[in-house]
Amino acid sequence: MVGTGGIVTGSHLTALRDHADRVDLVAAVDVATDRLDAFRATAAEGGTFEVTGYSDATAMLAAERPDLVLIGTPPSLHREQTVAALKAGAWVLCEKPLCLTLAEYDEIAAAEKEAGGPYASVVFQHRYGSGAAHARELLAEGALGRPLVAHCQTTWHRDTAYYAVPWRGRWETEGGGPSMGHGIHQMDLLLHLLGDWTEIRAMAGRLVHTVESEDVSTALVRFESGAMATVVNSVLSPDEVSRIRIDCADATVELTHLYGHRNDDWVYTPAPHVRDEPDRQRRWRTPAADLPSSHGAQLSALLDAMRDGVRPPGSGPDARRTLEFIAALYKAAFTGRPVRAGEIAPGDPYYDAMHGDHPEWAPKAATATTKES
Hints:
GO terms for molecular function: nucleotide binding. The chain is α/β, with parallel strands linked by helices and about 375 residues long.
């Protein structure tokens, strides 16, 4: 375990305990000795894990030769730590975002092995609940009719104390604002459900917080299927909610939750012309087995992939699509022009930085360097 902060002590440690029959937590890395010691003590409760502590990830990789490395450090460290773990032969499950740019993502991909792993996955736990799996299956088989209109909403609230943490709100250390650090989960789930996107138009703003990145963004998206969607990401919303709604030809499917969902959070509403078809509507009902979305659900899928020597979900081109979507959202918002899938490639400023060196959005030092060069 690299990093032992709150998300690790909570979600990741819980997931590891739930899978203690399949995995052993042998080491943890943190530069803060007090935090590391507290984590090791917590992990040892009940005799679950005996964890060796390290202050340096390189030393841990050399000494332990782990099969799997979980990364829960601030985003600016993800690329370096992920590449180091892959080169040491370990699979990786890294907190979102896996990295800060498409250029960094491609560097990680180059460090993976083509056949049999190791591979790097990003934490997109909202894909893995039974409700999400059921909805994706229904959409894929056309059981709800053709997808037509969608809405993806991450409207949360973060105060000034939240942004007092030095790495938050800065491009160099967080990679972006709510589009990158908060709404990424719902946008990834939207893409997981609807598939490839083709075009995006967007706006972004700093309406409240004094930060480098945005505190709100909105987007209009066209999918390869022809479906169209609206996307809203905010940290300015007192009434917090995470929501996805997809209107299909025969039914609407809607998910409403905050930080995680269960089967009951998914609602299916039939179109008027199918309201008298009870057998069809029974097919839409969420399964009896209720697997909540969680880090544990994703870890289970990753361990299965490791066992089978196959690429896990939430990695490779699948996860890159989500990062490209966010880069395109920023490019569309900052340039005022529509952006198409595949457009952001090496040589495009938004390939190397989410702010694209835009004079109104890039850090002042980065803008000055660009002008001087």
